[in-house]
Amino acid sequence: MDAAKSLLEPLLSIHERIRAAVVDACAGQAPEQLATVAGDAGDTIYAIDRVGEDAFVQGLTELAGEEPLYLVGEGFPGNSLVLPRGAVEDDCRWRLLVDPIDGTRGLMFQKRSAWILTGVAPNRGPATRLRDIALAVQTEIPLVKQHLSDQLWAIRGLGVEARRFNRLSATYEGLGLRPSHAETIAHGFATVVRFFPGARDVLAAIDDDVVRALVPSTPGRVACFEDQYASTGGQLYELLAGHDRLVADLRPLVQSVLTARSLPPGLCCHPYDLCTVLIAEEAGVILADPAGAPVDAPFDVTADVAWVGYANERLRARVEPVLQDALRRRGLLPSPSRP
Question: In angstroms, what is the C-alpha Rg of the chain?
């Protein structure tokens, strides 16, 4: 862990440079320019993504002058890159999983903040996984009209640190964040992700089943709320900041529904979207797959990952059985094996 810590300050600095470059681009160009399609690497790459990628690669190239780095992320040729040029994978002690802009769609239309995400793991070659990540950094890219933005990081076993940047004064102040201690989703934010069309009805029905089972219905009253924040890094932030109590991204489970409806596979969460899961976990958020195992995935850009985030263990104990029952009744989760 001490070795990974040596990368912290350089990565914080690189994130700051990316943030500045992207905010400047957003301030100087119309949304239509930023939303121009610039490529397709599994997910659509927009012009604003290229701004983030270029700033990231420039910063990491300078860092790699001290020690070679193996990068995994969308937008790189072959979805990976070894820096400095000429180095090979076996030269690299560290493997970085990165997303220069997570939440591109909301940012380019100036609807909501996006996030820069980086996870660093010892290089185990193709066997490297999310749970190997020893250092994670995520930095908010604010809207042009927004002068405050947050930056968080964690080293495995050492908890979370966070600070808030003021663009007007160019200064930082310390920031204390903690997940909600609530044991119920009543009157809080609890979201089943359904960003895109195709199987929204199924995901909404699962959401309704969970809420009906856990929150007594009262005429004229709202049981709970949802927040369809189209950024996994942003969702993790909302959980660890105490804003959200539950987020369930079940999109991979409904791919079979899309197939049955003669629809193409939908866009799902990928490992690079979850490369800062360490920060949420170090803050006390519980991250699991729908079956209840710790969330994990290979270090790549293609795997579809389903995950559920609970603000605390007591909340998980109440919600998880209900959620799993809703999934099993629809054939979306296998029944537990009997001894």
Answer: 20
